[in-house]
Specification:
It is built from one helix and six strands; from the N terminus they run E-E-E-E-E-E-H. By secondary structure, the protein is mostly beta strands. It has one domain. The radius of gyration is 18 Å and the shape is elongated. The model has no long low-confidence stretch (mean pLDDT 88).
Length: 102
């Protein structure tokens, strides 16, 4: 299994596959350990993995990809890309400034 975009600082990502039930396809899993949220693209469908340890998987009976995106991903992805999400901007100090004027 080839995963584009790795290595990523603060993250460990491993992907494996094996023949699925009765050799009818490929079962796969992607193990992710990351300090900050990451985006995983499976054939250009976006899934966001929060910081921590997670496993995304799919086989003939079940997939858990719906926990990380809008739709479930079935089958074996032809392309897998992992990328860091942009950092959220720091909150402005406008509220602090108003509080200090009171």
């Amino acid at each position: 299994m080839t995963i584009a975009g790795v290595p990523i600082d603060g993250a460990k990502i491993e992907g494996t596959w094996q023949p699925d039930f009765l050799w009818a396809g490929k079962a796969w899993r992607i193990q992710v350990q990351c300090e900050a949220p990451l985006e995983i693209l499976l054939d250009e469908k976006s899934y966001v993995v929060p910081g921590g340890a997670h496993v995304l998987y799919s086989h003939h009976d079940h997939t858990n990809t719906g926990r990380f995106g809008r739709e479930k991903f079935w089958g074996y992805p032809k392309q897998i890309v992992v990328r860091s999400l942009p950092a959220k901007p720091e909150p402005s100090n406008a509220a602090d400034s108003r509080a200090n004027r009171s």
